[in-house]
Design goal:
CATH architecture of the largest domain: 3-Layer(aba) Sandwich
Strand order of the largest sheet: 1-2-4-3-5-6-7-8
Number of strands: 8
Distance between the termini: 62 Å
Order of helices and strands: HHHHHEEEHEHHEHEHHHEHEH
CATH class of the largest domain: Alpha Beta
Shape: globular
CATH superfamily of the largest domain: Alpha/Beta hydrolase fold, catalytic domain
Radius of gyration: 22 Å
Helix content: 25-40%
Number of domains: 2
């Protein structure tokens, strides 16, 4: 029992201390998975700390008692802070904002910010159309593909969520993450378009954002086929996908960020949801310690040529045409904060204050500029929480559940707004 008491108390304390640590590149990337486990399993570490302290008392190992109780106490505070409510929606949408959500729509929404285990309300399985062509690369036969998640039984809210996956602009693809999230949104009547876009180094930022805008144009053109409203399209994404969602949403007609054949097409959206998406590319360069990569050989744009880019060594020079000192205009153009105006769509920003990859100060600066411009914007910052917090065990994770609670209500407001 003494050994078990030491293990439980020690792990509870160790994991709580790990939450406090602010990771940095490059070594921090390899510790990130352990930190995500610390946050996602925080309720378990509370129980482990208490159990370790009790067992230590029974086994006459008194040093395990303070270890376990401190660990349990810190983790209890973390769960409480993540699950605590905020005034972001009231500040952005006014008093009584929740009265604008019809009671019937709340049936499949999360009812609390956190429960010990989140059980989604049973609903019919959505219809999924895989590998739907939403565009073709100009001058080639290369097809751009998406997956469309449609609500079951024609229970369509009219709102479409175009989702852009994360992966540091270099990795991942549609269909690799998000299935449970998409099912949850479809249960509320929302249609989800999970977009596959071209990645770096095959293409740069301008071509990438062009793919996103083609997805917007295709969704608007095929709105009647899916029974949705072309004026109720929300761009959403995580990490690099969040950045692309913000940039496409804030600069829909910018000539330098729009393919020539789409400059007369309506590419506006009614809202943006960003999970820890970069908002200022020069700040991102500094925060992710990209300086250590300056001087390395250029990357080939040939998709068949190995890039030797590890997951901790993704590079912004290939993405933006150089480093900040010689491509400052490109960094400014690719920064969503640069494009803030009163015409920006309502925005939900979600991030942890210990984010390894995306600087939270830049996200807060974007939120401040949106508020100053009169744009309804909600900024949710979770304490002691790192990048990709929603990926690991979202069924038990306090920040993941709390973020989903806010997403549900943000989309419901956009679905029922008469001002769009």
């Amino acid at each position: 029992m003494r050994v078990l008491a030491i293990v439980l108390s020690g792990m509870s304390l160790l994991m709580s201390i790990l939450l406090l640590v602010r990771l940095t590149f490059p070594w921090g990337f390899y510790v990130l998975a352990f930190k995500l486990a610390a946050g996602a399993l925080s309720p378990f570490w509370v129980l482990a700390g208490v159990a370790g302290a009790v067992m230590g008392w029974m086994a006459r190992a008194p040093w395990t008692i303070p270890m376990g109780m401190v660990g349990a106490g810190m983790m209890t505070w973390y769960v409480w802070r993540c699950a605590r409510g905020h005034t972001g929606f009231e500040d952005a949408f006014g008093a009584g904002w929740d009265d604008r959500i019809p009671p019937g729509q709340t049936e499949h929404m999360t009812q609390r910010r956190w429960t010990p285990y989140l059980r989604m309300k049973a609903s019919p399985e959505p219809t999924v159309e895989r590998d739907v062509v939403y565009g073709t690369v100009s001058g080639t036969e290369r097809q751009l593909l998406c997956d469309v998640w449609r609500p079951a039984n024609g229970n369509v809210s009219g709102l479409v969520v175009i989702y852009l996956h994360g992966g540091a602009w270099y990795y991942m693809d549609k269909g690799q993450l998000g299935g449970a999230f998409f099912r949850h949104l479809a249960a509320q009547g929302h249609t989800v378009v999970d977009v596959g876009y071209r990645l770096c180094p095959e293409v740069d930022m301008k071509a990438m954002i062009g793919d996103v805008k083609r997805a917007v144009a295709w969704t608007k053109a095929d709105a009647s086929r899916y029974g949705v409203d072309p004026d109720r399209i929300v761009l959403a994404g995580a990490s690099s996908g969040g950045h692309l969602a913000l940039l496409a949403g804030y600069a829909p007609q910018h000539p330098d960020l729009t393919p020539a054949d789409m400059r007369d097409v309506d590419l506006s959206v009614c809202g943006v949801v960003s999970y820890y998406g970069p908002t200022d590319m020069e700040a991102e360069y500094r925060h992710a310690s990209q300086q250590r990569l300056v001087g390395r050989p250029p990357l080939s744009s040939d998709p068949d040529t190995p890039t030797n880019v590890g997951p901790a060594d993704w590079r912004m020079d290939a993405l933006l045409g150089g480093w900040p000192e010689d491509a400052s205009d490109a960094y400014e153009l690719a920064s969503p904060v640069t494009h803030v105006s009163p015409g920006c769509p309502p925005t939900l920003l979600i991030q942890g204050d210990r984010d390894l990859i995306t600087p939270v100060d830049a996200t807060c600066e974007l939120h401040a500029k949106l508020v100053e411009a009169g744009v309804p914007a909600v900024n949710v910052v979770f304490p002691w929480t790192d990048h990709a917090f929603d990926v690991l065990l979202p069924q038990v994770s306090p920040p993941a559940q709390s973020a989903l609670y806010d997403v549900d209500r943000f989309l419901a407001l956009l679905t029922n707004s008469e001002e769009l």
